[in-house]
Amino acid sequence: MHIDIITIFPEMFQGPFDHSIVKRAKEKGLVEIHLHQLRDFTTDKHHKVDDYAFSGGAGMVMMIAPVAKAIAYLKSQRTYDEVIYTSPDGELLDQPMTNQLSIYENLLILCGHYKGIDERIREHFITKEISIGNYVLSGGELAAAVITDAIVRLIPGVLGNEVSALSDSFQNNLVSPPVYTRPRDFRGWKVPDILLSGNERVIEEWKYEESLKRTEERRPDMMKNNGE
Ligand code: SAH
User: Fold this and answer.
1) C-alpha 129 – ligand 1 centre gap (Å)
2) Less Cβ around it within 10 Å: N or C end of the chain?
3) DSSP label at residue 178
């Protein structure tokens, strides 16, 4: 998979993309992530990417020209499955959307800033708008990092045996059951006996029941999707 990200703060991605699973995926050659500085596509000497809103009021708006130039340049290199804009009014990111995005070959993500981007960018260049939650971030970088992380861990071969994407929360519309590791007893707080029984079938049943119970208690909204 190839992911291009257009941003005015490429340095913000250094932490999230240089550790753990995303780092491993890059090292294995399963994903290539390229950061593109939007200011490199400006033509004025101040590398300006924002301007006053025609509607007046507080806040600047990201200009169309540098974004158009950046997208045209990137599109000349490859064909994108989706050109994504991170936006609080976009479609809410969830596991089914992440699963869908993970089967694509080429993705482009545009990170917004200020009061947002000139509406004509959204109309003419963007094919998918994604929100990571009902709150407002200062910029699209953290959202793009979240989207990328959620996608990359689903690419076949990225996760090792110690973790399996299929047993994560939200696959099957259920949250994960509780998990435990050594010691069996910490200050008298014990690991459930069933997990130490060695009986695979009983353990699987227990996990499923716990998942169901947790989903009912914590995420009753998800149960609606389970036909209950
Ligand atoms: N005035 C805008 C918010 C702009 S926030 C509004 O009220 O809708 C600046 C940028 O941060 C946005 O352009 C977007 O790219 C990003 N952003 C903010 N909140 C986000 C969220 N919940 N999900 C994804 N991107 C978000």
Assistant:
1) 11
2) C
3) P
